[in-house]
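>> Question from a student workshop board

For tomorrow's exercise we were told to take the sequence and the ligand below, predict the bound structure, and bring the output to class. My setup keeps failing. Could a helper post the expected result so I can at least see what it should look like? The ligand is pyridoxal-5'-phosphate.
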Amino acid sequence: MNLNSILPSDFKHVWHPFTQMKTAPTPLAIVKAKNASLFAEDGTEYLDCNSSWWVNIHGHGHPRLKQALVEQFDAIDHVIFAGVTHPKAVELAEKVTNLLPDNLQKVFFSDDGSTAVEVALKMAFQYWHNRNEPKKRVLALDGAYHGDTFGAMSISQRGYFNEPFEHLFFLVDYLEFPTKEREETILLEAEKIFCTQEFAAVILEPLIQGSAGMRTYSSEFLEKLVIMAKSYGVLVIFDEVMTGWGRTGELFAMNHIQETPDIVCLSKGLTGGVLPLGLTVATQQIYEAFLSEEKTKALLHGHSFTGNALVCAVACANIDLVNEVTFKQNVNRISEQHALFKERIENLENVQEVRHLGTIIAIEILQENADYFSSIRDQAYDYFLSIGLLIRPLGNVIFLNPPYCTTNDELDRMYAGIEGFLKIV
Ligand SMILES: Cc1ncc(COP(=O)(O)O)c(C=O)c1O
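>> Workshop helper replied:
Here is what the output should look like for this input. Compare the format with yours to find the bug.
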């Protein structure tokens, strides 16, 4: 091993996320990142096929994001956001609301995807509380993943990920995942649930569930469910933490339908994946339910780093990049390449299904009783590393959601790698 390696010290002091530290292989020590590439201590290059946990939409080291960060540091690094405001937070709120439908106008700042979801839940529950119509239940979708804090875990799929905490979760009903043939039945089920008038909100990963294995469902179903929820006065929350910023081919998944949510959660690509930030954007109507002479009717929530100026500056620079024509061109280009790759592999014997939406392509490998911890996941992960691809499968689902700067040659390396794995599995 390289004598200057960081690994012995990592082993001694670091506790990694989502990792069984006893059995996990040695982590990859990355010392440099540029565009779609990551470089390890020993100089090996890896393509960042999943945009480093789905966040680095422009790839690594973008000069415009760097410039925004450096310039902001000279102006304000950080300032308390209660009782204080600053130019970059205001600019960001303006820029984000300009991209969203007209009804989504009020922006609340937090730190990441999970906290954006926590805030959305608190807004929804307190909205009804402030109106003296307390509603205590939430509807979510089977297989959902909304984050790892307690509220977010409560509304996510229950199972081995959160079993030790289950006794602490609040009341959530789950709607069956809407496969095409079951859509109408599930909508009837949803109507029965909404009819009870006990539901504060329904929360959805619109069109595609990420952690469940990049599972897609139809925009027709989504539209009908939103219309129905609204007709019963149930608040609609879209968790666009994963789907936002071009991932589904449109800027946001909500752009695939006419209806709009009451609350949307944004994170991941919001800063180009460079710094952590969560935003929860709500309608004027929700906001107004918190206006009162009584201080306790306010949204009494905040974090030390809420509205951090460096983060806001980078997010503003990200949105400037998103508004440029090359952004859409790259999203379309990657989507077209994925479509061709899908055609090439979807009929292979060991392929159960290929799901493609925008810049995401997921290949479900045929396997009995597959789950998140399937051994095929480790086999695939190791295989891809051995050929210079960093791909982190979800159980038996191999997927690509690369940075938008990924070239067609780099995409071809990713596709060839997956085809190579499909030949040996
Ligand atoms: C749809 C969705 N919501 C929320 C989260 C949680 O985001 P974070 O990991 O930034 O807390 C994730 C993370 O993958 C996600 O995919």
